[in-house]
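SsrA-binding protein
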Amino acid sequence: MAFVIAKNKSANFNYEIYEKFECGIVLFGWEVKSLRAKKINLSNSFASFKKHELFLVNAHISLYMSVKGEETRSRKLLMHKNQLLRISLKQKQQGYTLIPLDIYFNNKNKIKLTLALAKGKNKADKRESEKKQQAKKELKQYY
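Predicted structure tokens:
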């Protein structure tokens, strides 16, 4: 059973998700302590490739107590090489964006991140998805 630290709530509204991946993340000690206190914001973050490595960009982890550090630094993501190659090919050829969906502790108390290959929605798509969600809610109320 995984313990979810934070979710990217705007991801499902702003993006259409096609595929999900699990990856590890390289953190400093104070960042782990801040994550245990659930002080992270994933809403504006994304993942990008730099020299065949994957990095999480714009993820805001609040400073723990009086530690001096950078809150929005790029953090390296850990994945298998064949997964990285497959993701980079899809991202380049089909124009996908890599966004984080959630960050959690797995069964072994390791911090993991769920990444998604996604494409951005325009306003019409967002309205359609809202209408579908409202219709589902109404059906659940009646049945």
